[in-house]
Amino acid sequence: MIESGPRLVHSAPSGLRPPEHDLDYPNHEDGMSIGSGRERRRFAADIVIVGSGAGGAPAARLLREAGFDVLLVEEGGLHRTETFRTDPISSLQRLYRDAGTSSIMGRPPIMFAEGRCVGGSTVINGGMSWRTPERVLDQWSSEFGLEQTDAASMARHFDEAQRILHVEHQHPDTLGRNDALFVAGANKLGWRVENNPRNMHRCVGLNNCGLGCPTGAKRSMLVTEIPRALSAGTRLLSHAKVDRIRFRGGRAIGVRGHFVDERGRARNSGGRRLGKFEVEADLVVLAAGARHTPGILMRSFIFGGQVGRNLHTHPNAKVVGLFEEKIDAWVGAHQAHQIHQFLDDGILLAYAGVPPGILATGIPGFGREHGERMALYNHMMAAGCLVEDTGVGRVVLGPDLQPWMTFQMSSRDVETVHRGVRMAAEQMFAAGARSVLLPFGDMPELHGADELVQIDRRPRKRHNIELVTVHIMSSTRMSRDKRGGVVDAWGRVHGVEGLTIADAGIIPSSIGVNPMETIVALALRCAERWAEDLGRRRMRNPASPSPSTRAAGDAAAASQGSGEYAAPAVPGAAAASMTS
Amino acid sequence: MRILMHAIAVIRPRGGPFDAEIDGDVARGILSFLPHLPAPTRLSFPLGLRLLEYGPFLFKEGFRRFSDMDADTAARYLHHWERAGGAPSLLFQGVRALVLVNFYQHPRILAAMGVDWQARADERVAYRARVLRAVREAGGEQPVIAAAHGGES
User: Fold this and answer.
1) What is the DSSP string of A406-466?
2) Which residues share a beta bridge with A273?
3) What are the tens digits of pLDDT across the range B44-86?
4) Using one digit for the tens of pLDDT, what is the confidence trace for A445-485?
5) What residues does A73 pair with on adjacent strands?
6) CB distance A89–B33 less than 8 Å?
7) A463 labelled catalytic
8) Which letter does DSSP use for residue B29 in this model?
9) Taking the mean position of all CA atoms in its chain, how far away is CA A276?
10) What is the DSSP letter of B143?
11) What is the pLDDT of residue B146?
């Protein structure tokens, strides 16, 4: 039987452990443990943040340090660094939404994966930390008219994001053979190779980034902003899924939702209902990602306009090179280099080491034919192109009341995918590959560089192309007014007081590079403004107590054990200590 | 279960290092996956398997069940599903992916392929701990844990 379930596996025989294995996560409550039956648990805070990934976690830390009582609500569980394993099956179930089986409908459909755990997708991403290209920032500033989004204005936010993420280059002793071949292929073609800036602290090249880094080297939110925020007094409520936003008089006053188990379901495997929760707050921050934030908005009857529109997918088409030599692509850093030379054409080239079970799903065929190819797994190198898309996508509410995504590639995108695949294949052959597997169902394999011309001749059909993405964005994008987007230049939802967004959804346009650092920088930038807004509001209404202060008063007045609000774990001294 | 077992038998790789008899484990692995899937997928999975079972006539394979087919005929029938496009292709790709992930990540298959990622993980975790300790003892940078508790990184 395949072994499954968490276990503590990682410690040296001497007992010496990486420091991340000893991190504290105070002020954490697990919804799986505290919720039950039809009971509705009530919480209060100055600010409730929905989602603990690249947007939510930095915002939580910054706002808490600004003196506010912050409650961070996360649908997934808190999985400690030392519980991460190399087995994709259990890891997908524990750390990924829908166990990694989500997809974006369209022609072609695009496989999509995102994290559902404390730390969000930063726990399971590849750890690439690129700034938004300046040409994109210029576009936001000039074409979109978004104030203070030009490169100069954004510089300090990127600096701060890189400090938080501890961005550094890969240590030379961690590079695998696949990296050498990637660089060699590029050099032979005269292409410039970029050294990846990555959010890590002395990565040792395990290449388990996509399933959680058990070494603790990857500076995900789980080991950076989450413990910082919690140590500073932020409260964390995990296994808590937000259903909708609460309003009073047109102003957002909190959220309500239900507790879920590890599978994301409202009843645990024993059939016990896990209960519901409600949060009262002066400011609601949605940071649930570019798919689920519009879902929450739509479930809260914020329909129409630009909500869920303008979705960009940054699709990735994979090629696999087969080499005579043994590569062991699973040994060595996940990805140390990229090629940005063709970014202006919308093409980014990169490689990655992928576990056999995951790579196998992208290898054509089944049965004996599949086995013959996969027998050469240790001679394979996976690479591909990421495409800066120009197509139109949308997030809609499905019949199950969950957000569904659609995306139609533009003709230009289809052309760019073909160009990108050709370049990636050409690079493989230049590096010495004897054959290359392609992401085209009707053209699965090329056996030499002389066959590359077949890609040029392939009709530009949208179907039969295998695409994946982990970089969706722009579904609640920034704009000057609500005709062009959902939030203003500071992440505040147009026309709704007390409601803000801090995730990839607010990115105004496709950025062409890995978006984590952009999300962190935008979240920090917006959170600074929210702290000022909330401070000014409190100054104007000094007699009006904050929700957490009211909750503390209510709890004191109520008879013991029947208080309506769960007592805040942190004294609600927000109003007194806030900055403005 | 009978349909799923037959699908596994046809889809799973054969030959060389892949002749291990682990179909039961693969089936159990797939069934452990299902509760984690979104409701529409989870609920439509058994329906999809039944379509696979009773669908041969759709592809001119006669009125017989998929699970009664011999290996070659079943493989030919699955190729029809693979190339059909639309929902049938998606269903086939879903089943195929579940079979392949659970097959190739089976410890016996990993061992046969010469991949021991978990042992490397254990070694790398210990290695990083030693490296960071050495850096600290040499008076290098402060341990990251201080930064994680609110200090400067």
Assistant:
1) EEE--HHHHHHHHHHHHHHHHHHHHHT-SEEEEEETTEEEE-SGGGTHHHHHS---STTB-
2) A267
3) 899 999 999 998 888 777 888 999 999 999 999 999 888 887 7
4) 999 999 999 999 999 988 889 999 999 999 999 999 999 99
5) A50, A237
6) yes
7) no
8) H
9) 26
10) P
11) 32
CB contact under 8 A, A370 and B13: yes
Query: Distance (Å) from the C-alpha of residue B42 to the closest C-alpha of chain A?
Result: 10
R_g of chain B, CA atoms, integer Å? 23
| Chain B contact set for A331 (CB, 8 A) | 120
ipTM of the complex: 0.88
Q: Measured between alpha carbons, how far is A505 from A526 in angstroms, rounded to an integer?
A: 13
- Distance in angstroms (rounded) separating the CA atoms of residues A523 and A549: 26
For A378, half-sphere exposure in the C-beta direction (CA atoms, 13 angstrom radius) is 12
Q: Cα(B124)–Cα(B130) distance, rounded to whole angstroms?
A: 10
Identify the CA nearest to A540 among candidates A496, A495, A575, A490.
A575
Residues with Cβ within 8 Å of A77's Cβ and at least 6 positions away in sequence, in order, are A30, A32, A94, A117, A118, A238, A239, A262
- Least CB-CB distance to A1: which of B28, B35, B130? B28
Angle at Cα A98 formed by Cα A94 and Cα A102, nearest 5°?
A: 135
Tokens representing residue A269 in the block: 């495997």
* Contact flag A378-B113 (C-beta cutoff 8 Å): yes
> What type of residue sits at position B80?
H
Phi/psi of residue A406, nearest 5 degrees? -125, 150
Selection from A380, A466, A383, A467 nearest residue A427 by Cα: A383
Integer Cα distance of A278 and A290 in angstroms: 23
| Of B39, B78, B124, Cβ closest to residue A215 | B124
- In chain B, % helix, strand, coil (3-state, to 5) comes to 75, 0, 25
Q: What CA–CA distance (Å, rounded) separates A52 from A61?
A: 11
Residue from A28, A239, A471, A494 carrying the catalytic annotation: A471
Distances in Å between the Cα of A286 and the Cα atoms of A154, A225, A296, A502, A511 are 22, 17, 8, 6, 21
Amino acid at A457: R
Q: Is the dihedral of CA A436, A415, A513, A297 positive or negative?
A: negative
What is each CA distance from A201 to A56, A80, A197, A220, in whole angstroms? 22, 17, 12, 10
Spatial CA neighbour of A29 closest among A566, A497, A453 = A566
Token pair 């065929």 in the structure block, residue: A365
The length of chain B is 153
pTM of the model: 0.91
H or E element that contains A364: none
Q: How far apart are CA A179 and CA A207, in angstroms?
A: 12
CA nearest to A12, candidates A296, A186, A189, A216: A216
